[in-house]
Amino acid sequence: MIPGGVNSPSRSYKAVGGGAPRFFVRGEGAYLYDVDGRRYIDYLAAFGPLILGHAHPALVRAIRQAAEEGTLFGTPTPYEVEFAERLRAAIPELERVRLTNSGTEAVMTAVRLARAYTGRSKIIKFAGAYHGHFDLVLVAAGSGPATLGVPDAAGVPAAVARDVVTVPYNDSEALALAVERFGSELAAIVVEPIVGNFGIVPPEPAFLEAIHRLARECGALVVYDEVITAFRFRYGSVMPMLGTRADLIALGKIIGGGLPIGAYGGRAEIMALVAPEGPVYQAGTMAGNPASVRAGLALLEALQAPGLYDGLEAKARALADGLLALSDRYGIPLQINRVGGAFSTHFTDRPVRTYADAEAADGALYAAFFRGMLRRGVLLPPSKFEAWFVMVPHSDADVAETLAAAEATFREMAAA
Ligand code: PMP
């Protein structure tokens, strides 16, 4: 009935040994319950949007109120104005901001805007980076670094792919080469400032510096895809952590409090091009709907609780340290890249700083780990490329239970 049994491919268990994925009916705090009533500690966090856990009382209240007072008006509302102001208070670089329904739409429009502003059509993206499912970003690297792209998904026209230059992440030299060749045609460099889509991979300082310098030199804009990173590691953007400033920023996931949302914004003179003020079209029947926005407002309020991000980081550190100690004890090669409350588990001996490194990690070991943890009531992302996200309701007891499950799983893996 539903292709692959899933409404988004990453939910399938294809990458972790196949078979039917587990079906879930209810979430509460740090836990998900499957159709048989079994409880799982959830580190999938719906691929990133959840940070307060499932059915957080403040979000339930906001969503219930929206349900009672109307979920969709097709008119401006005071809620979206307040939400835009709160976003700008958290991320001052969002001089102006527009809401969409998804991260895909946010990045897609930011790129359209960059093309309109610069009058150019090419973009640089980084190998293995995911920016949603519009044609332009479903393009892989050509035969070498700094070559034009080829479609990575059927149905993406070759003509579209020719506008995409793909470069390895954390490779300043390849980036410089790409800008040397295509700089005069370049509208934007699109980047996750901290990668969340082939594991958590922080940028090396020289690499980020190169992105901004090269973009400035050739007249391209820098678009930060912060769909995962914003409000994940701190209240707001990661820009203050990195000491950089993007021209345009795309948001999504967390800011909707578990309801569909996306947003893009940035420099006022660029955002002035958005219709109806300017000639760049972007629209949405559901964009800025009261339910998503009121959930988002409640979420932003709750995220300002003192010590919240320190708490997430402490739990993630305990998990990461524990997993590394256990993997060492059982002779299993494991690399953990962690930033704040998010980390990734790559089964390899070598550090992971590019997509090629992540690809080289052992998928069969990850699949065995995923399945062992699932049997023991711990839900991880069903792909070696996805991150674990710690949520506010994860308790010390959950961390201990997770590490006990990991010990049993590693022991099993070592014996296999
Ligand atoms: N950008 C990044 C960095 C993402 O991780 C995702 C979703 N995984 C998207 C864009 C697309 O967002 P959405 O799924 O809401 O369209």
TrEMBL record:
Q: Which CDD domains match?
A: OAT_like (cd00610)
InterPro entries per record: 4pyrrol_synth_GluAld_NH2Trfase, Aminotrans_3, Aminotrans_3_PPA_site, PyrdxlP-dep_Trfase, PyrdxlP-dep_Trfase_major, PyrdxlP-dep_Trfase_small
Q: Does the keyword Hydrolase apply?
A: no
Localization, per the record, is: Cytoplasm
Q: Which top-level enzyme class is recorded in the Swiss-Prot or TrEMBL entry?
A: isomerase
Q: What is its EC number?
A: 5.4.3.8
- Keyword check for Ligase, yes or no: no
Q: Which PANTHER family does this entry report, sorted A to Z?
A: GLUTAMATE-1-SEMIALDEHYDE 2,1-AMINOMUTASE, GLUTAMATE-1-SEMIALDEHYDE 2,1-AMINOMUTASE 2
The record's comment on protein family reads: Belongs to the class-III pyridoxal-phosphate-dependent aminotransferase family. HemL subfamily.
Subunit field text: Homodimer.
* Protein name per its UniProtKB record: Glutamate-1-semialdehyde 2,1-aminomutase
Please tell me the species this chain comes from.
Hydrogenibacillus schlegelii
Per the record, the gene is hemL
